[in-house]
Amino acid sequence: MYEEKFSEDVGSFFRSPVREIFKKVDLGSIYSFAGGYPSAETFPLEEIRRTMSEVIDKYAGKAFQYGATQGVPELREAVAERCGVPVERVQITSSSQQGIDVCTRVLVDPGDVILTSSPSYLGALQSFRSYRADIRGVAHNADIAAFKAEYEKVIAQVEAEGKKIKFLYMIPDFQNPSGESLTLEEREMLVSLAQEHDFLIVEDSPYRELRYEGDHIPTMYSLDPDRVIHLGSFSKIFAPGFRLGWAIAHPDILDKIYVCKQSLDLCPPIFDQYVAAEFLRSGRLDANLQKSIALYRRKRDLLLSQLEEHMPEGVSWTHPEGGLFLFLTLPEGFDAVRFYDKSLDAGVAYVAGEFFHPDGTGKNTMRMNFSFMSEQKIREGVELLSRLLRETL
Amino acid sequence: MYEEKFSEDVGSFFRSPVREIFKKVDLGSIYSFAGGYPSAETFPLEEIRRTMSEVIDKYAGKAFQYGATQGVPELREAVAERCGVPVERVQITSSSQQGIDVCTRVLVDPGDVILTSSPSYLGALQSFRSYRADIRGVAHNADIAAFKAEYEKVIAQVEAEGKKIKFLYMIPDFQNPSGESLTLEEREMLVSLAQEHDFLIVEDSPYRELRYEGDHIPTMYSLDPDRVIHLGSFSKIFAPGFRLGWAIAHPDILDKIYVCKQSLDLCPPIFDQYVAAEFLRSGRLDANLQKSIALYRRKRDLLLSQLEEHMPEGVSWTHPEGGLFLFLTLPEGFDAVRFYDKSLDAGVAYVAGEFFHPDGTGKNTMRMNFSFMSEQKIREGVELLSRLLRETL
Questions:
Q1: Is residue A92 part of a domain?
Q2: Which residue range forms the structural domain that includes residue B122?
Q3: A106 at the B interface (CB within 8 A)?
Q4: Residue in B10, B15, B98 closest to A265 by CB
Q5: Could you give the CA distance from residue B273 to residue B79 in angstroms, rounded to a whole number?
């Protein structure tokens, strides 16, 4: 009835299969490897309660008033200090999903090309498609020369078509969905491709601080601060319910994001920003983060050992050094979308890997989250999923 | 350096002069009639503190987790009940500014026409322009036949140009910036024009509940619930720092807004939503709102009497029955943008009326807010502004 009333963008909207799952089932009542939810155990309720009360004492009415579009100065400064960047390069976003969306809005016209890994983060693909971007995915290749050649092939093709590459979208640390990280060499290679062909990079970094083993690798932003827009999030290091993230970029880019944000929502939530700032500056955030890391490391190890013990022949998976996910590859011919109904009926949820592939490949893959469920449920969930797979394969 | 990298939309972005003022001056240190800020006195700090603690007790980790894109059920239901609509018609927005922006995103392609009053809300004009809409403003006319004829003339012109009117944007109650309301007859006339020419209406209603005299007038939504998208806000009845609003519309329209919101920011802030829901359902919101209304009524009366006493000949102003603003008209030839520097130097801020006019007229007008300052400062501010005007006129 309203069809001819909608804008052209609407024709390219697609529903997040992950969010649709959340609409239908109560994740607490099943075995859910599906969401990217942190564990509620990691939310320090009493410390949050105390911090909220302190914010009310300290800021009074100011904590509930309108505020600056860039974010409250206290939070911008705390983020700038944590990330080692000047405060003029920090914009607080109302969720790092907003960071992705607003970058796309200010950079991409319909038909413009966005390069990304394949698979890649679903919420980013959803935003890119909604602006009618032409998304080109490149699969990872452990051989760096071959990996570079793949990118060069796609870039040459785009240039031959007379199209513009607006940016490369990457999650270099513990990627969603694969759980894998880019090596320093790979980061350098991608940054130098961006320099050579003059496109920007959007570096999405929500999981970076959740490292369970190995050494931190420099951000892509640090390799070329004027070419890379770095996106961060409080969702995985504090709590997603505050919907707060940040964008770090050259001031000329940030200025467009800032003006765009004025008309998007005026400013990020004020009280929540003061709470995050106090939590960060008091050291409570880092103390709590250390506990989360220990918990998630245990859960990751448990998931890996359970898969090892129960999964049938022919199933393989990634070994993430951090983050919230690992990625399962099933035998060729397996259809994780078709299998999903059977699995959900039996009480196990995951996200089919196909949804993360811009070109609809990856039918025999699935993403498994290990942060959300209790260790007991991870154990039982893997047993159940393995049994279902054994019956099917 | 980045110019050729930006999307075409960016060329139509414009900075909010209001937000730019906020960047430069501390509103607390001057006489500010500029912002649309509620008075911080109206934020019930102790009740908020208590409610926050109750939310933590009641919802624990759930209050800090991700949540449904439509909003948490408790808040959707509370809003549905308050507005007398089915819950399927309620989407919680991350600020009612987001409501405006997302409506434009899902309805408007570049060059599509949006009809609006002239003057109109600056944040809406900013959003409309950012999507390269063709904005046509119609001045109010107290003679309804003439008012209708004005709209018909503009509609005929748009139709002759072969363009599409996507929606009419209206703030029927205590409009920003004029402070004036549409009569029931005017609302009916506009709805029937929308029916006849088959366009939608976006009814922006942030001030509706701040009525200081006279009777409530039915919403435009109530006159045609399948054609009108109604936007509400917690900013003026609770506190703007939570950045929460709502959109009420036919489920087929709301579905597009919902899918769009998935990629915009996944979901509104969760903890803040529970706080708003508890505040609403406990009756605390209404009790506090009654106090705000009494306070603002006093401030409005004070501003009106001060203007009467101090303003020079040839200056007139609106007499709003509610809301946060009144609108001043100065003698023909006066330039409120040019006068602004002088005024700010002397310590008085306002917003020049020109910014609210889609066609750049209204140079001799200014918007004055009466909610933000103390009664003492309103008194002194009017005296100062009147003296400056007397020196200039």
A1: yes
A2: 65-283
A3: yes
A4: B98
A5: 11
